[in-house]
Amino acid sequence: MIFAYFEIDSIMNDLIKLEEQRRIILPEIYKDFYKRCFVSIPKKLIGTDLLNNYPELNKYAFELIKGDGADNFLKEDDFVFMMHQGYIFWFFEADGNPDPLVYGYHETNMFPHKIDRLSKFIEDYI
User: How far apart are CA 18 and CA 37, in angstroms?
Assistant: First the structure.
């Protein structure tokens, strides 16, 4: 069990570093989701890339937007936390809101669409 606690501490340190580097504030709801997905990916998310394994999701999202010829709508504090098969991604504004709105973008769309609050979005996937 000591290893598991050490691993969780390491996971959380990675998120703290990310927040410091990007100057964002991730909600606790997301941090709990991140920890859960580190242990086991929910069945509904099989085939979906999570930050846990792909730390460059914001970069990949930007490449998708650019490839579609859409104007970049992602702001500095937007946080891409999931991407499915390279053609859909989900993000929220990591500005300290404890339960931010989640937006989704699908390849060939020119703009994102609002989905729901992060808590509801995660509940639907877990």
Answer: 17
